[in-house]
Fold these 3 entries.
Entry 1:
Amino acid sequence: MRAKIEDRWMLVFAVGAAAIWLAVDRLRWVPGDPLFEAKVVAGRTMEAGIAVLREERERRGLAWDAIGDPNRTGLIGREYTDLTTTLGSLGAKRTATNPNMAGLVVELLDRAGARPGEAIAVAFSGSFPAMNLAVLAAARALGLRAVVISSVGASSYGANEAEWTWLDMERVLVERGVSRHRSVFSALGGIVDEGGGLDGTGLAAGGAAIRRSGVSLLDEGGRATLEHDVLRRMRIYREGCGGKPSVFVNVGGVLTSLGGEGEAQVFAAGVIRPGARGGNHRRGVMARMIEEGVPVVHLLDLRRLAARYGLPFDPVPLPGVPDGAVMRPRRIGQELAGGGLVALGLLGFALTRMRRKSPVPPSPGSSQPMFCFVIRSDHKTGHRGKRA
């Protein structure tokens, strides 16, 4: 009899183990991150872009700032020039040069709903040339068409060198085959309101950069003509995209994107879903896109974005590709295998406990009695015992 009970428990264990093995074997083919390949392609495209810009900067004989740009990316400018519009964070600018940022942009674009073959509207400034490159690399990896409007002005440590503006970088990237997109228009940006440097030469330097790039000038007047400039940009995007864009991407603190004073605090970095907003006539392109049902990818506050998606802040040296939590595929197969082993162990433990608690009938020939008395109390009859 004991042998039969042992066989029963072994059968239960074997069936349970087989079920766990089949589940793991069936589910191990569930894919991890479906964007992993596109993220890696985007990251390596950005790596190639950094290499091209580094080489071109050296070819032009432009000086390097060993302290400001220790990774020699060619994407970090000076603290102040005539093209500087506002103060900027050096750490944030260097964080943006991580090539895995392109993978992060792939993630955000996908979350916003951009799909291959669709057109996205993009606003670049000179403040974050590395993030501009990340967007272009992500758009290429996802097969998106980008309608880009750029601004020459840049915050501290951005593309604020008169001989090496974002438009200069953009042209090199296209000519060397790294990017397929160039700006359809370029504005002077924040240097209009700031007057263009201490001596007013920034406006001339910005105009010269636009002319040598071959991009059409978008004549904007800053805060004085903000509503007009915003509406004109909306028309350019609709015409370029053939209707509403699938996503609007903003890089940096572009005035026409953010709108009036205080709007910068309204928008958190990352993906912004469509929803109604107030009737402020000074609202910018971001607010108007949201009102029209267009998702927005807002690329600002790099410290927070990097922390949220597992990328290092201000890395030296630059990480390779892929690196960081956002670039790692979910290893579902390994997790299932580990879970299966744990489940198998728990099953064995539970069956062992149940086996020990199970009563074992006496074997034939044992000294235990073959009958017993069942004692019962019957309040009505007073009967106390009965042979069973």
Entry 2:
Amino acid sequence: MPQTWTPSAIAKTIDHSLLHPTLTDEGIIEGCRIAVQYDVATVCVKPYSIPLVKKHIVGSRVGICSVVTFPHGNATTSMKVREAEDAMDAGATEIDMVVNIGKVLGGDWEYVSHEIGDMQSAVEKRNCILKVIFETDYLQDQQVIRLCEICTGHSVAFVKTSTGYGFVKRPDGMYSYAGATDHFLRLMRKHCGPKVAIKAAGGIRTLDDVLRVLDLGVTRIGATATKEIMEEAERRNPNI
């Protein structure tokens, strides 16, 4: 029998994404207002904005998730760890890290494993959680499977599909991305251990998108369209 969802339960699956490079402080404050209004899981922000975000979610149950070396993951491991430490010291309790995509594509699994392990150790020391972003638009199935195995081995909390900014050049010269496809979500759920959760991000824009990926075993969603998703959830309640 299909699972039914209440609006409040749906809200607690959402990391409200405030990551666009053009966001001003006013835009971030408005995003915090939406996050608090709907009581989402976290606001997902860049490290510099954590002090501002703390002021505007105070008294709520909304957490702070910070991205690290976003969106390309190209910093050295030590820089990634330091950025995560700075973010956690500022108030983040969840860290979304982009893997070194070039090392994944080149098959340097020792490097990739050491980096994820160092990041996991850093967040564990502060009782925080790590989400590892794969950027699946750039990867083949076997690379995703190997990343799932590595993340399971290091006991990370979440694996995540995409940044939402992993644009691929198409034959017509235009750039686009697929984001959280059903294919990769199923693959990730199949090849991650049962204690590793799945976060879908990239292209989750409607309530039906949310319900579809939740049905595939996802427990956290990165979304910019939180207001639209929650308005639709409230309209449909209790028939979600």
Entry 3:
Amino acid sequence: MARSNADHLAARIRLAEDYPYHRPPVPYLFDDGVVRPLEEPWREARMPVIAFGSNAAPIRLATKFAGMGARIAVTPARLRHYAVVYSAHFSSYGSLPATLDACPGATTRLCLTWLTEPQLLHMHRTEGTGERYDYVELSGLDLVVERGGQVRRAGAYLSRRGALALGGRPVRLAEVPTENCPFEACSQPAMLRRVHRLLAPQDSYATFMTRIIDADDYRRQATLRLVGTSVPVETSG
């Protein structure tokens, strides 16, 4: 039984550390939990929303849209003058999620999700719009979509808690390919360990992560302490 509990804990910590999760390197259709080649038109009556974190990953779309029969096009894209950095809060499953931040000259490879209006409203709820993130529509973007040309306007979720800053500067997600960005890059597993040392060096990493995942009050207090280190996120232009 003890071994089973240890394996379960390790799996939960691994889920936190695996953020932002695997996404296909090519355009794909999320079809009610099944990943299919993207062959149908995806722009008609849909809003492009920048997916810079886990929203581009089938595993998270399957959780967020479970039982809804959702069909969502996901397209890789290249966005200039922005970087994907850590937000100053914890997710309910223990990860340090992402946010966009202006970074002149940078080029970041991320994705777009193409959402119908009902899907967009549902995504707002899953993102905690008004609590964890603000939904904004960015215009004048230098955003090029694979197999889709240029997009000048797209939605995005920007952290209300700000960008997690170490040494006074945002830290970008090493898992997101980025060029010409002066921000330090750090992987999710390494960043979680750095934050553990910052917030609870007296506890083991496993104990800290268990409390972050299981104890809502502990997670909220930890987030408040991270917000104390944060800097506001900015938009380009």
